[in-house]
Structure formats: C-alpha cells, structure tokens
C-alpha cells in the first residue's frame, strides 16, 4: 500500500534520484500537503470530456511498454463516476496489443494533452476491456459518430497530476482554425459592403463640376 498517492510513480528509486538531484524536498512538501488527487474532480472531468485525443499506455507481462492513441469527437471520453473513465474502443487494425497487455497486466496510464491551452494531465490507474456490454456501449458511443465500436475500455483512476505548460508547443484544432477564418471572412465581407455603400452614397451626393 502506497503511503502517498504519488508513490504510484515516485518509487524508492525515483525518490533516491530526486534526492541526488535536489528535487526531493519540494516533492516531499507536496506529499505532506496531500499530494496528487486520487479521485476525478469536477475540473478534471471538464478537461477530460472536451478532449478529442488520448494516449493509453500499457505493459505486457514482461514489462514491455506500449502506447496506443485513441481519438474521437469531444465527449468520446466519458467520466462515469469520480473514479472511472470509460470510452468505446473503435475498430482499427485489430492487433489487440492493448487488450493482450491488460489481460496480463491491468496497470495502465492515460496521457492527455491540450495543445491550445498548453496543458497536460497524467493519470495512473488500472484498466480492463469489456466485450459485449450493449448497455455500457450505448452509454459510451458518441452520438452520430461513424465508427464501429469493437469493445469498451474502463479505466479506474489511482492518481493524477497536472504538468506545467513548459515546452508544450501551442497548436490549434483545424476545425477551430476553420471557424475563426470563416468568421474573419464574414466580417471582411461585411466591411467591404459598408465601404461600397459609403462610396455609392458619396458619389450620389457629389456636386456637379466640383472635384
């Protein structure tokens, strides 16, 4: 049993390295103040449910790690309660590496990153695959999304932490950029119409023979 929630990541070896490199004292203070969260807060829930992308890390029985990307429309990641995140696992190349890893070793990790806000969230926990759960799948499947669900994945949170924005490049979703450009073009068209109207009004009111 871990003494602190962050012990899921801060093993004795990690703490020894922190001590050697001078960061252990600051992390010890974080631990004493309560450390990382072990439940999904409203703020974390709001962050999760607007994401369109997530990375799921697993490891097989020999410890070989594997990272799988999963994406979908905003809301494809569902917070089911204060401990569990679920999502429909859409059919892909059907290698089933993640599923095989989870059958041997249910420890897993979620990495979420919002490039526009330059924010990243790390979530440790345990995951399992649910096959054939029609009611659960209906709850998890995004409305009107054209993808075939293979199964569901349920992730139970052990601990989570938010990183600082340092070194995260700021990027924007293509759909958001397209919407901003469309709004810009709409405003430009409106201004051009106003300019044309003013020119017509000026020309109509000009005094003959005057420059």
Rounded average pLDDT: 90
Largest sheet: 7 strands, antiparallel
Placed side by side, the strands forming the largest sheet appear as 2-1-5-6-7-4-3
Q: Percent of residues in helical segments?
A: 25-40%
Supply the CATH architecture of the largest domain.
Roll
C-alpha geometry: extended
Number of domains: 3
End-to-end Cα distance, whole Å, is 90 Å
| Rg computed from alpha carbons, rounded to a whole number of angstroms | 26 Å
Number of helices: 6
Note the beta-strand portion: 25-35%
Helix and strand sequence: HHHEEEEHEEHEH
Structural account:
By secondary structure, the protein is of the alpha+beta class. It has three domains: 35 residues, no CATH class; 127 residues, Pnp Oxidase, Chain A; 33 residues. The protein is built from six helices and seven strands; from the N terminus they run H-H-H-E-E-E-E-H-E-E-H-E-H. The protein has a seven-stranded antiparallel sheet. A hairpin with a 4-residue loop joins strand 5 and strand 6. The termini are far apart. The model has no long low-confidence stretch (mean pLDDT 90).
């Amino acid at each position: 049993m871990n003494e602190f929630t962050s012990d899921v990541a801060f093993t004795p070896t990690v703490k020894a390295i922190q001590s050697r490199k001078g960061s252990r004292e600051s992390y010890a203070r974080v631990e004493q103040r309560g450390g990382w969260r072990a439940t999904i807060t409203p703020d974390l829930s709001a962050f999760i449910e607007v994401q369109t992308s997530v990375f799921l890390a697993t490891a097989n029985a020999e410890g070989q790690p594997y990272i799988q990307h999963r994406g979908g429309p905003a809301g494809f990641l569902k917070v089911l309660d204060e401990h569990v995140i679920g999502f429909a696992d859409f059919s892909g190349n059907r290698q089933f590496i993640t599923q095989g890893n989870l059958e041997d070793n249910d420890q897993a990790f979620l990495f979420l990153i919002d490039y526009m806000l330059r924010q990243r969230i790390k979530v440790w926990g345990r995951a399992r695959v649910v096959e054939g759960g029609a009611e659960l799948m209906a709850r998890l499947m995004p409305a009107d999304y054209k993808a075939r669900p293979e199964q569901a994945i349920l992730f139970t949170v052990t601990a989570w932490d938010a990183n600082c924005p340092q070194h995260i490049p700021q990027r924007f979703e293509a759909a958001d950029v397209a919407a901003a450009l469309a709004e810009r073009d709409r405003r430009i068209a409106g201004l051009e119409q106003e300019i044309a109207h003013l020119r017509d009004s000026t020309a109509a009111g000009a005094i003959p023979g005057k420059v």
